[in-house]
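Notes to self after the Tuesday call (sharing in case useful).
The group wants a holo model before anyone commits to mutagenesis around the pocket. I volunteered. Ligand is flavin mononucleotide. Logging inputs and output together so the record is complete.
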Amino acid sequence: MSPSRFEPVRLEHASRLINHGPTVLVTSAHGGRRNLMAAAWSMPVEFTPPRIAVVIDKSTFTRELVSASGAFGLCLPGLALADLTYSVGQRSGRDGDKFERYGIEAVTGPVLGMPLVERGCAAWLECRLIPERHTEDAYDTCFAEVVAAAADPRIFANGHWLFDEDNADLQTIHHLGAGLFVRSAGAVQAQAL
Ligand SMILES: Cc1cc2nc3c(=O)[nH]c(=O)nc-3n(C[C@H](O)[C@H](O)[C@H](O)COP(=O)(O)O)c2cc1C
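Result:
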């Protein structure tokens, strides 16, 4: 695996990485196997310690690996990875290593050793599963604590997103359904009335 090219994101800013509901790549590894899948349904649930929730269906290979290792990564693909994101959400890693199949390079997560995608991604979060049997069984919703986060400084720096016309390829993508995405552009600073 290659060394990280991202810059660390302070954990108190981790929620900002997924506040706007980007589609993520959930990465996982256990027992010599590794995997990644697309997930549109993730969100922050606590600032400090930073906690998140993500829906990982029990039929997925990802869920099997996450349950076994107690860890996963959330990587935020940019616009240039829309086809890849859609593709890794269409087939299961049980049928072969999707990193190899799609030529995806991984870096090693600094705390939990998760495979993380940087090339073409805006940011990643390394997450430790908080076992919650009921929500996992009933709703496929997995809670986790974010233990490390990092971002490409061209699009997220000093705790803030920088969406502009120069970094469209790195802008996060949001799933509208059936493979149609919109990118996150057009930020507006609100003022309290
Ligand atoms: C854009 C997109 C978003 C998706 N969002 C989710 C999601 O939030 N949760 C989920 O369990 N599956 C979601 N899926 C489906 C999984 O990515 C899919 O079942 C995948 O093949 C599972 O791979 P695996 O068996 O290798 O883990 C999504 C698929 C796509 C294409």
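Two things stood out.
The chain has a mean pLDDT of 97.
The first helix runs from residue 14 to 18.
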